[in-house]
Amino acid sequence: MADYREAPLATRPKTLDPNEYFNLSPDYRRAEAERAALRAGLKRQYQLQLNNPHRKELIEDPALNRWVYARANPYNHFKATKKTSLLGALFGVAPLFILYYVFKTDRVRLYRRTTYCQCIADQALDVG
Amino acid sequence: MLKILIPTLFLLPTTWLTSSKWLWPTALTQSMLIALGSITWLNNTTDTGWTALNSYIGTDPLSTPLLVLSCWLLPLMLLASQNHLSSEPMNRQRMYITLLATLQLFLILAFGATEMIMFYVMFEATLIPTLLVITRWGNQTERLNAGTYFLFYTLAGSLPLLVALLMLQNSTGTLSLLIIPYAKPLLLMPFGSKIWWAACMIAFLVKMPLYGMHLWLPKAHVEAPVAGSMVLAAVLLKLGGYGMMRLMIVLDPLSKEMVYPFIVLALWGVIMTGSICLRQTDLKSLIAYSSVSHMGLVAGGILIQTPWGFTGALILMIAHGLASSALFCLANTNYERTHSRTMLLARGLQIALPLMTTWWFIASLANLALPPLPNLMGELMILTSLFNWSAGTLVLTGIGTLITAAYSLYMFLMSQRGPLPQHMLALPPSYTREHLLMALHLIPLLLIILKPALLWGWFAC
């Protein structure tokens, strides 16, 4: 019965109406009816714009605009919490020092090796 | 040199004196003829290296590819701007073309300068037309913020450069690029030398941009109109790289110690900005961050001062200039149709505009450095010379290349594949002008595959 849906031209019998079936309170039913009316109004506006034959531009979606603005402007609402400070230090500060240390020790090792080999080669030539 | 400079200079009276019916065709034809004439510069005939030399300007194998790129870009900028300017009053259109032509003039003088102060003055002078274009012809209110960031980041970085150049002039007596390689080094106290080195380099590192000082770039690229974005991405960033390459000769013994922090920043920036690209919702912002990523690799190649590093940096600069400019033009074709830069809104375009998908495909492949394109050649040369410098860099550059491929494919798949939004009705088909624009960007990139030695700088052997 979970996927029962009424036939297109018939109404649902009273015992299968969700409000009766789940014994919902009259306040809840009223609130639900208001929300359904709001949704229907929004859908009507969208359908009017969608089917308008003179429309040339995109249909503006305010939710999309808000989401894009939020994704594009995080720094205005940035707050230095423990988590953000930890992440910043972990990804922004520590790698710089770690990489500096890694490259410097590697290069110093390479330099010592090349100058040592050069020194040995020079000595060999001097002797010979 | 004069055969290019004088026509560019006279593009300014041309735009103000032609009738409004013939303005755009005339400006386009003249700039195209200048561009074709500039290709002759690639023929470097002299043994000393400097061709077309006089007291003030000259060309050498390092500057000719960048000069040709900046001359080639002017007709492309005019082609790209034609549509969105067509609804504006005539004087504003003339002013726009004037700004682009003055920018072109300053860029030619900057790349051709043989004296560092002239290069510095032209480097600063290019800021003004770009600032005017961004703040006057940008589309959103954030353009003022973007102009401020752009101007002040670059100015703050370059004022120490002026002081450093004047100190060098005082000590050496000249700042001519032909002489300073042979001049005696500037002898200062140890800490003073380090400050002087940093003063010389910071201006160009901010311009490139280096990862820590890159905040101006996404703002400026996103808020600029298409011609502003094109010239910013393709040429103005390369001014920073060119300046670094020229000044490195003078800074030599200090550089061995001083470059480490900047190479670390550049390479870490490749990975960080690449990762940011994967999370962008705004198409132009994604392309802007990808520019930072590629320029980080170029900065790494220049800072290690090896022949392959310089060659790779130069090739990557040219190839990235063409590819990035192509991507901005493609983003603009989307923007002109939907008036929004959000990637989610302009999906599934392969169904609606299939021919443009070809150009999107080639430009995305160029961005991810597909062989045999010159982008790969530049990246490989930089990668191998960095590996020679220190083996650990391979981890960073390898992950960077992987992330570059990921976001380039993400951009292509997001814009071309997938379902077309159902409420988009009026998508005008691609104009011939747009196809011509994309062809003029990408066909030179494909032709460079056949002779990349043109772009190898001093080491074309």
TrEMBL record, chain B:
Looking at the keywords, is Membrane present? Answer: yes
Give every NADH:ubiquinone oxidoreductase chain 4 N-terminal domain span.
Answer: 1-110
| Cited InterPro entries | NADH4_N, NADH_Q_OxRdtase_chainM/4, NADH_UbQ_OxRdtase, ND/Mrp_TM
Q: Where is the NADH:quinone oxidoreductase/Mrp antiporter transmembrane domain?
A: 113-404
- UniProt-listed Enzyme Commission number(s): 7.1.1.2
Q: Where are the transmembrane segments?
A: 62-81, 93-111, 117-137, 149-168, 195-217, 224-244, 259-279, 286-304, 310-330, 351-370, 390-415, 436-459
The alphabetized UniProt keywords are: Electron transport, Membrane, Mitochondrion, NAD, Respiratory chain, Translocase, Transmembrane, Transmembrane helix, Transport, Ubiquinone
- The superkingdom listed in its UniProt entry is Eukaryota
The compartments listed are:
Mitochondrion membrane
Annotated Gene Ontology cellular components are:
mitochondrial membrane
Q: What is this protein called?
A: NADH-ubiquinone oxidoreductase chain 4
